[in-house]
């Protein structure tokens, strides 16, 4: 078992600061404290080698959970085990088998080339020369780092820097990898590249990967399993496809017709769009076969397509429905 | 001129609004300013523990000089310093192009866009110290003293601005230094004490090449009634000269900047 | 450990090169204030001119060798959140700071010692032929201790950044007070008796002034022993402070997040 989380809670106590002069003076003497529940009763297990996405809007508790898993925060209650270690104990052995990449923060040293950071990590993680060279060669090839290694970090683009961040985090071949928003701010093309790399790396090395993101593309491309979290609570834990079925009991039927007949579509489903000979209908799952065969019988169908609703829509639905899912 | 004044007022307003968001920081800023001037006075007391004059200046005279120094430093920290790092950032990130597209004089814009109001506390404390020193000395400046003082303090403000801008302009070439204002501080520190204290070639440098003498000593002497018409005129001339040079330098830098970037 | 340090030192060396211009400007700038203070004293007591030249030249040297900037670095890292990376790595972040200090101070040495030698040719006051071997040894011990105390002092404040948001402002105030008490405004012997007494007990004298006093010979006999004793006490005090604050800070950081 690689990651095991049981009944995890995290509360923060924040000082409430009142606006204005009197508020500022008052807060000197009496501080008002409010408790914020960032994570509420989350449990899940991730077997080793699996790649799982953590989804949720900003402030849902994703980063807080990841930080607890990496040992940066300790839980208010509940238990965490990562590869048999309790993260917040900060054992050196634990630190050597895991890695954390935060999309918004850099571990690379700003004014010198990434290679220098790599060498420092080599020493800190006590990586053997041969293993280091081997890993580095592999990462350089996979991530196309060749020319980036010797340029000062500050002169790299955001995407290039992210690729180097990933390499720096993987040099010691961690068994567990936490990625917090690894594709944030990257252009679509680079996002795609980073994604492909993470997937490939996970397949080849059986590294357990837990990644947070709010780009759906990351998730659909990489993970079969998603954890959806909102307001600190786990809403859904399971396969991505199942989520769609559970949440959206309909499919999208796209039919290309020679011409659009002037009829009411209500008998088939809910009309989404009808133009240039193409009709899109929202049809309940259980009726999809019936409706499509009727279409084929009644109309001059040139092309027919059945699709799941777009992922973004599903997720938005999940957040709206909140309690209904789990 | 009038237009620039209006724009300055607008900068002033936006920065004020921004800072009022953090008004709880007032107390901390006030205490640190008070602490700063207190330490400066204590330093002078340590010196006067061993002597009764510094380069011919008595204790109260040096206090007055310190008051002027503190006032000017407050003004620098209020209007000039906050802009130095922004210009560097603009140049580094390439956002300086936005500044150039604005229909405002670029030198004016980069020098006064950001203001930090807390530092005006230093100005008030400095003025307070000037008044205190005059009371200590039992000297009431005459109208002529005051006129001379305001002329010379005006030139010292222009001088400071010009020197500051020249330094700031070098950031077009030396973008690797995070905070060039440190260089200016080192120079400005020399004006903390009477110019008469420096000897030989250093005094000549600090009078004519880097005119530190005109920044604090001349206004202080004016207020003490020891002004000299020639010196005051010289300070005005030097201020004008330095402003002209800094302006030319800025233009030159801009030309090389715009022709270098694609 | 040794291998880790050799890599860290190399990395810090490369990094320093990226900042070499800034470093040199910074170093030159830091000399201005002592030089001005020196001129003030030469004005007050022209008979002692040579003694002042020697004192303040030594001050510039010692001040550079003991200077500490770690509080700013730590504050920035804690504020920007990159300190998290230091926590998840299996290596105590203080080693990075130590390595950085070693590299920069080696650079200062490489610049300042030849500069001193060159100046001594022209300025007789700077010649060092009067100083005996024992005095040199004591000076270097005191200098090393001073650098360690000042580093730990700065690091202590840096770690306070886990609790206090504007820790550099607080540090700045202590620095300002220490100007008097460490012998940077005036040699100890010229301070008013009250300041002289408290500076004997506070840590600041042992961060800058004490090694200079040994070099100028103004501290003698048993006073040297007392001085080393107090310096050692302060050194241990700050070591303990760093140790405890680090543990508490980590816990605090784990409780509220960085």
UniProtKB/TrEMBL annotation, chain A:
Record-linked InterPro entries: AAA+_ATPase, ABC_transporter-like_ATP-bd, ABC_transporter_ATP-binding, P-loop_NTPase
Highest taxon listed in the record's lineage: Bacteria
Which Pfam families does the annotation name? ABC_tran (PF00005)
Any one GO MF term held by the record is: ATP binding
UniProt domain ABC transporter: residue ranges? 23-256
Q: Which UniProt keywords apply?
A: ATP-binding, Nucleotide-binding, Transport
Report the protein name in the record.
Answer: ABC transporter
Organism source for this protein? Aeribacillus pallidus
TrEMBL record, chain B:
InterPro entries assigned: ABC-2_transporter-like (IPR010390)
Organism superkingdom: Bacteria
- List UniProt keywords, sorted A-Z: Membrane, Transmembrane, Transmembrane helix
* Residue spans crossing the bilayer: 30-50, 62-80, 116-135, 147-167, 201-221, 227-245
UniProt keyword Cell membrane, yes or no = no
- Protein name as it appears in the record: Multidrug transporter
What species does this protein belong to? Aeribacillus pallidus
Ranked from the top, the taxonomy reads:
Bacteria, Bacillati, Bacillota, Bacilli, Bacillales
Automatic annotation (TrEMBL), chain C:
Q: Which UniProt keywords apply?
A: Membrane, Transmembrane, Transmembrane helix
Q: Membrane-spanning regions, if any?
A: 21-41, 53-72, 102-125, 137-164, 224-246
In the UniProt record, does the keyword Transmembrane occur?
Answer: yes
Name-wise, this protein is Multidrug ABC transporter permease
